[in-house]
TrEMBL record:
An example Gene Ontology molecular-function term: FMN binding
Family note: In the N-terminal section; belongs to the zinc metallo-hydrolase group 3 family.
Organism for this UniProt entry: Haliovirga abyssi
Chain ranges of the Flavodoxin-like domain: 250-387
Pfam families per UniProt: Flavodoxin_1, ODP
Protein name: Flavodoxin-like domain-containing protein
InterPro entries for the chain: Flavodoxin/NO_synth, Flavodoxin_CS, Flavoprotein-like_sf, Metallo-B-lactamas, ODP_dom, RibonucZ/Hydroxyglut_hydro, Rubredoxin-O_OxRdtase
Amino acid sequence: MKAVEMKKGIYWVGGIDWDIRNFHGYLTQRGTTYNAYLIIDEKITLVDTTKYYLVDELLERVSSIVDPSKIDYVISNHVEMDHSGGLPRVMEIAKNATLVTAPNGAKGLAKHYDTSSWNIKTVSTGDKLELGKRSIEFILTPMVHWPDNMVGYMPEEKILFSNDSFGQHIASSERFDDEFPSEIIIEEAKKYYANIVMSYGMQVGRELKEASGLDIEMIAPSHGLIFRKHVKEIIDSYVKWSSNIVGKKALIVYDTMWGSTKKMAYALQDAFEEKGYMTSMKNLQNNHISDIITEVLDVEYICVGSPTLNNNMLPTVASFLTYLKGLTPKNRKAIAFGSYGWGGQSVAQIEQYLSDSKFDIKLSKRLLYIPSEENLEELKEELKKLL
């Protein structure tokens, strides 16, 4: 397991998680990496660690460059355990190291690990850590996406250690964006933004504003490929995603018992397409919620449909709406729909979720048993009048 030199004396020393496919509910079909970076200067510095079960990989890579006990600084940009899980082992080996983190980082780490013997230095926005020929300037980025988050900028090498921002869940032996298909990197970065960062669009906007004054040649995120060729492209993508810019698109998400709600979904699709909208149909029996969420980023309409089962919407629909509500995309229009046999509660329940999520509900429609062609035509005309 070799360290990978990013710039002279600066190395990627993280861990590759080839097998992970579920990251707290987020489907990671391509696995992931937990990136850590080793800086060899007058002060030897490690930026972040890995999940606990990959810390041996990290230590082996560090050992290929320097004795880990010689580390002077360990920077913790984020408490979450996929980045801090290896800290106890590292701090045990690097007994003289100072751990550098945000004030909320120090509090958070103490709630996860026994930090009583650690020498901890807290930093705030604008603070600089001198390493010798190089330095790291810190910017606190609380709630992107934990309270302790911060990023570090190395002006001498023009590297932004961006923490979770600009990350992607990709396991790969390649380390840089010019060694891997760029369309896959952007696809996974978009999914990552939608599932991890979307709730914090305002904070991301502030972070981008802070970063706009930096001369950046390389972005070193906490997951996935390191950007050195497509730096402008990924920053532009983040500006777009965090701005809630939508296209003339409709996302139709549904589940169905006997096909009646599916008939309604396709009638809505016909209406959208007749009005010039791009559409995407997502049956929850065949699509994972974390994949569907990626499409929420740039759609004007989100339509959600479910029949009624035992006085409720179907569990798959409830799961999707719970996930959607937590991520709170802004400025979207919504439609609730579904068929029913007697109670018919599902559509009102969907409507409540969409309302709680602050969506602008434009139409709510339920139809009894199997919709007739006349019913479906009426539904289409009703929607077309709104578009």
